[in-house]
Amino acid sequence: MRKMLAAAVSRLLPRVAPKPASRMLGAAGTFADKATFDIKPCELYRLEEGPPATAVLTREEGLKYYKTMQMVRRMELKADQLYKQKFIRGFCHLCDGQEACCVGLEAGINPTDHVITSYRAHGLCYTRGVSIRSILTELTGRRGGCAKGKGGSMHMYGKYFYGGNGIVGSQTPIGGQVAEAFNMASLWKLPCVFICENNLYGMGTATDRAAASTEYYKRGHFIPGLKVDGMDVLCVREATKFAADHCRSGKGPIVMELHTYRYHGHSMSDPGVSYRTREEIQAVRSKSDPIMLLKDRMLAGKLASADELKDIDADVKKEIEEAAQFAITDPEPALEEIAHHIYKDNPPFEVRGANPWIKFKSIS
């Protein structure tokens, strides 16, 4: 019986370092299997009903969400450090503060659903199944990166994930204007969830200074919309489930605005404090941090102990450090491979380099 119980606990924590059996068994007996929490109701547009105002969180789900958000947070902080050390060059857009968005979205959809994102892509790249090591190695431009070191921060890809478009807004219709995409999706009843991660700033401009209407969930006009608390992973999960069910039932597209906040500036070249105060950032961190909110719920619901969450933090830190070490020591791709993989399947062909006298061969 003791062996069976210990095995059950280990399945709940598949990536957490094993602890002595006596400690695990003693702790597990005090944990609840699940808890129900009140969540902020969504604001609705052209909808008679919306997602529920309560959410059930199991212990297994809570531990998974907590660790995933911590992985994204520490990955972005490590990317900040590597950029300042000049291991990462070029553009780099970090998403720390917005972890509930990518984790909640993934929790509300199927693994085989297709996700397309903008250039602030690191978190979604990880939740879609790309490893931390592969992401950080792509950021440093090395062979082991998810795009083999050729894409960098804004061009990351994985199975069922098309991310990091460098053109602002290009991810919405993939070749067209957003109004056209809304129109066609609605006309043909396409199962599309259009998501606006509203972190309150467009580069360095506050939304209320740039937009006559900041109710982005109503921007679909003839398409239903939801405004969601994007700092609460449970709110995002429940809203995503609702939106996905709406689309799968044949009702056509839906617009979902996730009200969130980024802690870093727009990119690494933006200090992020010239158009907003440090006090504003700190206020969000202290009152609405997505990891803190989940941690407080788990402790209040007796889904985990503080020591257990600290152990997860330590494991995450170790994994990030090991991934970063690989990312700065993995070899860079050879110059002659610069034109490889232009197409997934195609006979080899020549590509002109920086001048007409240099040719490279493209191999799939």
Summarize the structure.
This protein is an alpha/beta fold and 364 residues long. It is 41% helix and 13% strand.
List key phrases describing it.
four-stranded mixed beta sheet, 12 helices, globular, disordered N terminus
The count of strands amounts to 13
What portion of residues is helical? 40-55%
User: Can you list the strand order of the major beta sheet?
Assistant: 2-10-11-7
Major beta sheet, specifics?
A: 4 strands, mixed
Radius of gyration: 22 Å
Q: What is the string of SSEs from the N terminus onward? A: HHEEEHHEHHEEHEEEHEHEHHHEE
Distance linking N and C termini? 53 Å
Choose one word for the global shape: globular
Unreliable spans: 1-28
Q: Note the beta-strand portion.
A: 5-15%
Q: Give the mean pLDDT.
A: 90
What structural category do the secondary elements indicate? alpha/beta
Treating each run of at least 4 consecutive H or I residues as one helix, how many helices? Answer: 12
Description:
This protein has 12 helices and 13 strands. The N and C termini lie far apart (53 Å). The chain has helices at residues 2-12, 21-28, 59-84, 99-108, 122-127, 132-139, 178-187, 207-210, 233-251, 278-288, 290-300, 306-329, and strands spanning 34-38, 43-45, 54-58, 115-116, 157-158, 161-162, 193-198, 201-202, 205-206, 225-229, 254-259, 349-352, 359-362. The relative contact order is 0.16. The protein is globular, with a radius of gyration of 22 Å. Helix content is 41%, strand content 13%. A 4-stranded mixed sheet has the order 2-10-11-7, with helices on one face. The protein has a 3-stranded mixed sheet with strand order 4-6-5, with no helix packed on it. Strands 1-3 form a two-stranded antiparallel sheet. Helix 1 packs across helix 2 and helix 3 packs parallel to helix 12 (306-329). The longest helix is centred in the N-terminal third of the chain and has 26 residues, at 59-84. With 364 residues, it is α/β, with parallel strands linked by helices.
